[in-house]
Predict the 3D structure of the following.
Amino acid sequence: MSEDTWYSRRRARWKPDHVRMLLIAESAPDDGGNINNRRFFYDDDLTGKDGLFREVVRTLFDNPTLVSGLGEKRPWLEMLKAEGVFLIDLASVPVNYHSPSRRFAALQHNVEATTSLAAELHPDGIVLVKQNVFELLNQSILAAGLPLLHDQFIPFPASGQQKRFRERFARAIEKLPK
C-alpha cells in the first residue's frame, strides 16, 4: 500500500538534497477518519500533539520555545531541511489505532522496503524512533551496511518519555559524522 498523497507531498517538499540524518518513525498519526484532524511531522501547522517534531527541534536547536499555530513549523522545517534532517515512516499508512497484531503485521510488512528506501537516501546516519521500530528495523539496517547511530531503542516522545527521548537522541546524534 502506498502513502496517501497528502503525506507524500508534504514529505517531498521538505526532503533535503543530501540526507545527513534520517529519522525512521512508525507512521503518520491516524486522523480518525476526519481529514480535518490530520497532522503530520511535515505539516506547516504546529499543534500541541506534535511531540516528535517538538522534541527533535528542541534537541537539535538548543531547546527553543515553540509556539503552536498556523504556519509555525515552516521556519523549523526549513532549518531541518538545511541541516539535512529527513523523516520517513516504517508504515506507509497510519497504524496507531490498529490492534497490536495488525499494527505489527503492517510494520513488519514494510521492513524490506523501508530498508531499501533508507539505502537509496544515502544518509550519513540513521535514528530509529520508537521501540517497535527499533526492534523491527535495526538488524535489517545494519545488515544493509547502513549507519545506525544507536544500539538501543529511542522511545517515542510521549507519555512522559520526552526527557528519555532527548537524552538518547542527543547521544545518537553525537555519533553523526561532522
